[in-house]
Amino acid sequence: MKGDDYKDIYPILVDYYAKKGDDVNKKKYLAIGQELYPENTYWVQSQIAEAGDDKAKLFAKYQELIKENPQSYELAVDYGVELFNYVYNQNKPADYEVKLTELGNALKNAIAIDANQAYPNFIMSQHISNQIYDMQQVYNGLKGTKPEDVKKKQDLNKQIEARFEELYLYSNNAHQIYAKNAELKPGEKANFRIVTNNMIDYYKMKKNTEKIKELESKLTAMK
Fold first, then answer.
1. Residue-wise pLDDT tens for the chain (223 aa)?
2. Sign of torsion, CA 116 119 125 128?
3. What is the rounded CA–CA span in Å between residue 152 and residue 148?
4. Looking at 77-209, which runs of residues are DSSP E strands?
5. Which of 8, 189, 207, 213 is at a distance of 20 to 30 A from 91, taking alpha carbons?
6. Residues near 91 by Cβ (< 8 Å), separated by ≥ 6?
7. Is 152 exposed, middle or buried (0-12, 13-18, 19+ CB in 10 A)?
8. Cα separation, 121 vs 119, whole angstroms
């Protein structure tokens, strides 16, 4: 059965059989609903919800759904946000290094799907900013004066500068998109200010006082 009169029936059936623990019928009506109404985001949301609080299952489900829906911006950015919250939790996860790479790739994928969206650029800027902070902490802890210690600091400083270039790239992308929107929501305004401050930090690293003043004036003008 297809038509506007029936579009809400299949989500109800999927929910009903899910609550009964009837996986066969749940999958049956999920498949039918997806075929008849592929634009309904419920089908994706219901599959993600199945993972519950198990992060391994959740990430695996996201990867599976993204593979099936490679042009879905919503899926791509939601996966990036889930990874960001997991990586930068109060307690560093055991697979921190692995998930760092996956996070960067997930956000790049979301940006590639829709380059006109500020949010994944903003999240990427926060990801890079966190990495710069960690690298600076390591740098500040290097106290040795031997040639190998000096070289280690020099190499790390180059890495930090390279990350600042990335920080500027994604912050500037988000900044330009936010600047074109005359009706930013409160959360978007807050993000706008954050990426502008990221750009100020970049120009402080570059010792470019003219750009710093320009951006600080923009910050002051923001309402």
1. 555 655 666 566 666 666 777 778 777 766 666 576 666 667 777 888 888 889 999 999 999 999 989 999 999 999 999 999 999 998 899 999 999 999 999 999 999 999 999 999 999 999 999 999 999 999 999 988 899 989 999 999 999 999 999 999 999 999 999 999 999 999 999 999 999 999 999 999 999 999 999 999 999 988 7
2. negative
3. 6
4. none
5. 189
6. none
7. middle
8. 5
